[in-house]
Amino acid sequence: MSIADNLKQYKSEVESDGVKLIAVSKTQTNEAILEAYNAGQRIFGENHVQELVDKYAELPNDIEWHMIGHLQTNKVKYIAPFVSLIHGVDSLKLLQEINKQAAKNKRIIDCLIQVYIAEEDTKFGLGFDEVIELLRSEEYESLNNIRIVGLMAIATNTKNEKQITIEFKELQVLFDGIKASFFPNDENFKEISTGMSADYKLAIEEGSTMVRIGSGIFGKRVIKHFKANITAN
After folding, report:
1. Residue 127 burial by CB count (10 A; 0-12/13-18/19+): exposed, middle or buried?
2. CA–CA separation, 33 and 42 (whole Å)
């Protein structure tokens, strides 16, 4: 099946539930992204800052670009002028830098707090208590150029659907509690970004409002091996 056919299938399945489909376009060519774009996709997610900056400059300007990978504070300045949503905010320090760069660009940047829900050591994110501590802090209260619009998380990489479902349920409970405590009258706080190609159906069942699909749309990714470009002296 073509990218357009794959996309049509996901759109009909995901968007019929009112869930946003983020096409994960990391390592994909501009031609592949344009095929998805011409098939109606407008939201794309990237993991690496330089790749995101390059694609932003070369592709249609009505694309909504999401930064879905781990973001280092020293690279925020490169995407601050245009990024639509930053998914992986996992520290107050990062939030402060996003606020600083947003102010320089006279913008308010939407962010999701990344929550650690997986039983793995390789995932980023704040613990449940750390999220609450951040939102209670005076430092957070002073940030005027960021807007927290929801939570993001990545479930454990396992075939145990029961475990994944429990993790998504716990995130939903946290979301509801934070909504009631910190954002009771804020209509912008409404997003839960969970679910990828392997577990997006479970995520939607447990309240996800955004799913991130890459290989299901574009096919198997081509991994770039940068060392291959280094020639011996």
Report:
1. exposed
2. 10
Q: Is 138 exposed, middle or buried (0-12, 13-18, 19+ CB in 10 A)?
A: exposed
Q: What mean pLDDT value characterizes the chain? A: 92
Which residues, other chains included, contact 76 with Cβ-Cβ below 8 Å and sequence gap of 6+?
Answer: 94, 97, 98, 100, 101
Residue with tokens 């449940």, as numbered in its chain: 128
- The 3-state secondary structure of 53-84 reads HHHHHHCCCCCEEEECCCCCHHHHHHHCCCCC
What are the tens digits of pLDDT across the range 45-78? Answer: 999 999 999 999 999 999 999 999 999 999 999 9
Q: Give the global pTM.
A: 0.91
* Tokens coding 98: 């996003």
Instruction: Identify residue 104 by its one-letter amino acid code.
Output: K
State the Cα–Cα distance between residues 215 and 9, nearest whole angstrom. Answer: 13
Return the number of other C-beta atoms located less than 10 Å from residue 90's C-beta: 22
pLDDT digits (tens, 9 = 90+) for 97-128: 999 999 999 999 999 999 999 887 666 899 99
Stated as kind and residue range, the H or E segment containing 148 is: strand 146-152
Q: Which residues contact 159 (CB under 8 A, 6 or more apart)?
A: none
